[in-house]
Amino acid sequence: MKNKILFIVPSLKNAGPVNVCLNIIKNLPAFYDIEVLALNGGEREEEFATRAKITVFKRTAILQILRFIRKGGFSVIHSHCTVSDIFNYLSFPSVPQVTTIHNYFEVDFVQTKGFVKGMLEGLVGRYMIRHFHKVACSYAVMKHCVNYHAMHNVTAIPNGVEQPRPLQHQNHDNEVHYFYLGVLNKRKNVQQILEAFSGWCQGKMAKLHIIGAGSDETFLRQKFNNEKIIFHGSTDQPHAVYKDFDCFISASHAEGLPLALIEAMASGKTFICSDIEPHQEVHNAFEQKSGYLFNKTTHGLICCLNEYYLSDEKASLADNAKNNYLKNYSAKKMALSYSELYQKI
């Protein structure tokens, strides 16, 4: 019973916070007895089931959920995302409660859900976790929580991902292949990447690949119909798509600690990213240069595209990106840090 942990997740779908939880579970030491309470099913269920006992309840089964949590005999209850935090809070357990803060509360919520709903969710979310052990997904998010919301009992454990299985690479005739991986929406600011690349790429041996789907996909496909820009759509195996590409790009307005970036680094890809604090954190985490930051302007992004294109140090940048990942952002490192927290509390 001493090491029986319950994880509460909003679903078992392929989504950032769910994938972080999965990576924690898969890399925790074997002495933990792990259960997962999911408030919806999803395509990740089989992977969760390799290491944990899974129970799925509809969110409307409130009494069943609370009874399950209260009577489970857990030593720690760890929830991810606001809806999971609510059930964790309402169960009033007598054991330590943990939550992982995956974003900047109102900043992200307002951009994805509108001002009123976003502000309300941020307010409710902060109230529910005020007595929890709070884990920020990056040092930047921890700093925000402490400085802007006066939160107590906050620590930082940076997100980690598993290193992808090596795949056979193919040469691409000296072309430089840039790529974006993620959701296509306003918060991710993919349009700026496309505008910068379209204005810069003429006469260059370069292509841009867009991997992902989202609310802006149709508009972006129609506006940027260019032989140098390839839209790949959504895929469950992005690594198989970008294995032969060179440089990851993100112009995101807000992130907690972007999984797409560290997944790209795990595959030995350098990066060009907007200089928001989480991107700065990754950039500065390694003593040798592993990527580029730009000052959120299209001109700044174009300068970075050109600097990487002309660089004769592409191989060392790739090696540094891989080593940055290995030192700071592996799933094993993340899970061991969580294990230390569970034992401590």
Automatic annotation (TrEMBL):
Pfam family, one: Glyco_transf_4
Chain ranges of the Glycosyl transferase family domain: 171-313
InterPro entries: Glyco_trans_1, Glyco_trans_4-like_N, Glycosyltransferase_grp1
Enzyme Commission numbers on file: 2.4.-.-
Keywords carried by this UniProt record: Glycosyltransferase, Transferase
GO function terms (MF aspect): glycosyltransferase activity
Domain Glycosyltransferase subfamily 4-like N-terminal: 16-162
Protein name in the entry: Glycosyltransferase family 4 protein
Keyword Glycosyltransferase: yes
Superkingdom of source: Bacteria
Keyword Transferase part of the UniProt annotation: yes
